[in-house]
């Protein structure tokens, strides 16, 4: 790296605009955004995290955390549809802006373009929302999938307006390039960024020490709720019939009353609510049971399971973007076969150990942060150094930015004027 590149990198100010304040103990999205914050801090950047959302008890507090690296991050509450954000932009003058999901870009992108036209605008997609929405509709209405919907139009427009979109799933990268003809230079693959796992550590519980099954997931996320319903109605009763001593433990943040109502000790279906430590509860279970019927992106619960040495039983949708050729457990869509394979994995120690070892291998080959950080760093420098040319090559995106900016701008100004009265 040349000295000029290093100077450029260190001088950057980075502004994160969060759809919500990060909740790393509640969702994979919260962990993901903190990984990105950590990446920029390690580059030597000055980082500000902002959001128009209200904080919750689970919100991460940068300024009060014991993790010294994050102490330097400033938290700035911002307002929707308010010119005070423009004043903040002028004062902070970021050279990189990271949007947490496309809705944040819709809400604030035009203001960033107006006040900081030379700032690199990075969209962290988390997962493709239009893909998850289309699959949900297909699952619930039993109809053929339709990827061309209102959310698709909005999300792809946001991708085109951004200088770079971070993709957590290779499947979703391929979908955007092949189905929607998105220029590859606008996309960058960046999975979960994890620490290397030392597989010979004594901290992992043995086959005999682990027992029962577990599912974990934020209940504000519809695929998690539908997975739990599927377990309750169809899958768990058949597993319980053949493994009468086993229990299924259900964990997840934001459980509503309908979730608590599923709790039944006689059935071995135990609802616990939010886990204080996800890795700890997963490490006690012999299998993470996750027959996910629809969704998108990568699954944070699977990262946790592999880190805890707990094999996984899931569907092809669940495995998408995470593993395919080698499997840390089971991938099966046929319900009866899924059940029989799950029971076999639970009972056969040799199969179980093999699945556990594959999980460790996948973590270190596909998610070790040391494999991705330098490439991402170089991509950021490349886009910054050639921003004008980079945008010329995305001329359609610049047209969309101009048209959409006017539409979003005047709608926002109208709302601001209305609120001021």
Question: How would you describe this protein?
Answer:
The structure is a single chain. This protein has about 425 residues and is α/β, with parallel strands linked by helices. It has 2 domains: about 5-195 and about 370-420, Rossmann fold (3-Layer(aba) Sandwich); about 215-365, Rossmann fold (3-Layer(aba) Sandwich). Helix content is about 50%, strand content about 15%. It has 17 helices and 13 strands. The chain has helices spanning about 5-10, 30-45, 85-90, 100-115, 130-140, 150-160, 170-180, 220-240, 255-260, 280-285, 300-305, 315-320, 335-345, 350-365, 375-385, 385-390, 395-420; strands spanning about 15-20, 45-50, 75, 95-100, 120-125, 165, 185-190, 215, 250, 270-275, 285-290, 310-315, 330. It has a 7-stranded parallel beta sheet, with helices on both faces. Strands 10-9-8-11-12-13 form a 6-stranded parallel beta sheet, sandwiched between helices. β4, α4 (about 100-115) and β5 form a beta-alpha-beta unit. α4 (about 100-115) packs parallel to α6 (about 150-160) and α6 (about 150-160) crosses α17 (about 395-420). The chain is globular, with a radius of gyration of 22 Å. The N and C termini lie far apart (about 55 Å). The mean pLDDT is about 95.
Walk me through the topology.
Layout: H1 3-11, E1 13-18, H2 28-43, E2 46-51, E3 74-77, H3 84-92, E4 96-100, H4 102-115, E5 120-124, H5 129-141, H6 150-161, E6 164-167, H7 170-178, E7 187-189, E8 213-216, H8 222-242, E9 248-251, H9 257-260, E10 269-273, H10 278-284, E11 287-290, H11 300-307, E12 312-314, H12 316-319, E13 329-331, H13 335-347, H14 349-366, H15 373-385, H16 387-392, H17 395-420
Parallel strand pairs: 1-2, 1-4, 2-3, 4-5, 5-6, 6-7, 8-9, 8-11, 9-10, 11-12, 12-13
Helix pairs in contact: 4-6, 4-17, 5-6, 6-17, 8-13, 10-11, 11-14
């Amino acid at each position: 790296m040349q000295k000029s590149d290093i100077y450029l990198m260190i001088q950057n100010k980075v502004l994160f605009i969060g759809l919500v304040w990060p909740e790393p103990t509640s969702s994979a999205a919260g962990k993901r955004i903190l990984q990105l914050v950590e990446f920029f801090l390690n580059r030597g950047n000055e980082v500000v995290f902002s959001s128009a959302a209200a904080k919750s008890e689970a919100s991460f507090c940068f300024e009060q955390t014991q993790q010294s690296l994050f102490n330097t991050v400033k938290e700035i509450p911002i307002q929707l549809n308010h010119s005070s954000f423009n004043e903040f932009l002028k004062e902070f003058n970021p050279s990189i802006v990271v949007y947490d999901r496309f809705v944040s870009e819709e809400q604030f992108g035009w203001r960033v373009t107006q006040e900081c036209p030379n700032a690199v605008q990075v969209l962290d997609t988390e997962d493709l929302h239009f893909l998850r929405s289309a699959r949900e509709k297909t699952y619930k209405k039993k109809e053929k999938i339709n990827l061309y919907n209102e959310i698709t139009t909005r999300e792809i427009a946001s991708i085109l307006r951004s200088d770079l979109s971070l993709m957590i799933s290779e499947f979703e990268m391929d979908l955007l390039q092949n189905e929607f003809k998105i220029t590859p230079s606008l996309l960058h693959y960046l999975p979960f960024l994890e620490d290397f796992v030392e597989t010979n550590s004594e901290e992992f519980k043995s086959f005999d020490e682990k027992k029962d099954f577990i599912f974990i997931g934020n209940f504000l996320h519809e695929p998690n709720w539908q997975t739990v319903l599927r377990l309750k109605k169809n899958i768990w009763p058949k597993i319980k019939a053949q493994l009468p001593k086993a229990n299924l433990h259900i964990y997840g943040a934001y459980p509503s009353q309908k979730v608590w109502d599923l709790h039944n000790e006689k059935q071995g279906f135990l609802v616990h609510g939010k886990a204080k430590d996800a890795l700890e509860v997963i490490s006690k279970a012999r299998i993470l049971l996750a027959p996910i019927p629809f969704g998108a992106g990568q699954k944070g619960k699977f990262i946790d399971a592999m880190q805890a040495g707990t094999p996984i039983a899931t569907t092809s949708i669940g495995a998408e973007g995470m593993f395919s050729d080698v499997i840390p457990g089971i991938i099966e869509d046929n319900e009866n076969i899924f059940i029989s394979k799950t029971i076999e994995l639970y009972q056969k120690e040799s199969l179980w150990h093999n699945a556990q070892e594959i999980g460790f291998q996948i973590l270190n080959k596909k998610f070790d942060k040391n494999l991705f950080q330098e490439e991402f760093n170089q991509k950021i420098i490349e886009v910054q150094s050639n921003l004008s040319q980079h945008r010329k090559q995305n001329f359609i995106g610049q047209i969309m930015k101009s048209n959409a900016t006017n539409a979003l701008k005047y709608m926002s100004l109208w709302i601001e004027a209305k609120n001021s009265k």
